[in-house]
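Quick one from the shared queue. A colleague (R.T.) flagged Sulfotransferase as missing a structural entry in our internal table.

Convert sequence to structure tokens.
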Amino acid sequence: MAKRDDLMTLHAELNQAPTAEALIAEARRVTGLDDLGGPARNAGLEAFTASLRDETWATMTGRARELCADFLLHYLCTRLRLVADRKAHPGIAQERIEKPLIVVGPPRSGSTLMHTLLSLDPDALAPEHWICREPSPPLVEGAPSAERRQEAEKRMTELFGLIPDIFVTHPYMIEEGAGALAECGSDILNMVCTSQQMWCFWGGATYKRYLLESDHTPALGFHHDFLQHVQHGQTGKHWALKGSDHMLWMRELAAQYPDAKLIWTHRDLAQQLGSLASVQSILLGLRGHPVSPEQRRAQGKRAIELQHAAVEKAMRARQEIGEEPFIDVSYHELMAAPLRTVEQIYAAAGRTVSAEHARRIEEWLENNNQTRHGVHKHSPEEFGFDRDEINAQFAPYVERYGHGFGIRPEVVA
């Protein structure tokens, strides 16, 4: 495996944004490998590097550029190694991904808590941050080395070191570090440069169009291959997954996993959108500069524009897919009765919550307070949100699910 310092030989001064072609060539040089799994899986990289070149690179500090270039190059090296692993272990391609539970609700809607509770099932598989950053060699070859886990921890710490406030909004990262649960919609799909997270980090309008308008079937094919890679050698398990990004490609997700249950979490729009705007304005700090109040408000509004487009796209896809795969969950019901909510989901999925799973949920809830590392303070008014405007903008969603701006928990619980 290449040392981390070896990954920064490309564009040492980084005065210009790296091209997709240059990044691929460098990844091949570093690893000595050639096969990335097909050119269709490079569409996200091409869109993202074009966005860097034309829209955002000039706004980033030198340190932010280093982190971005390393991020892209590392994941290209990872993809090369995953394809090589797949050739070396033919059994990986024989793995069947059956009846996964996938939380697909929008960001800040309770989806992380929902995913956590599902992952506590002893029969569930749920990806962790470290394996999404250092997945090679496959676990079938043995337990990962301490060095491998430490490298994943180092990468995560360096990236988010630019924005320490992110740990208040995601407190599990402090205690669990690279062992925290990963989002399959971003932590896996970052490897093929297809994620809302990357738009938040360093993307612009070009990349946003790619997310909203492209057919993401090749990216979801990679997602499937990655699950096969991690599952290989582990029997009797089902996947518990989560990705708010999946709202951008719900149709492709359902086609890739036709027997999945898609769990759509819903929350009062005043709370959900206010929290989303706040988090995504924090992520703007990954461009290396302090985020002014004006920039914070502007980024928050851009975040809501993308969220609105994602919700509309997901609702259209749901109409095409049909209702059978979907399970709707109220954030407010989840907070009031977590175990009962999981039991209802399992019943809808034809499963039963085991005694051990229930015990783990109760224990986790007793030991985890979401404000133990600070309170995420935000207000929809801070971003200039108007109740009537938001409810009008999200009218089809509000009419269908009842979670409008300012709907109180007692109304929707």
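Confidence is low (pLDDT under 50) at residues 1-8, 371-377, 408-413.
The first helix runs from residue 20 to 31.
Added to the table.
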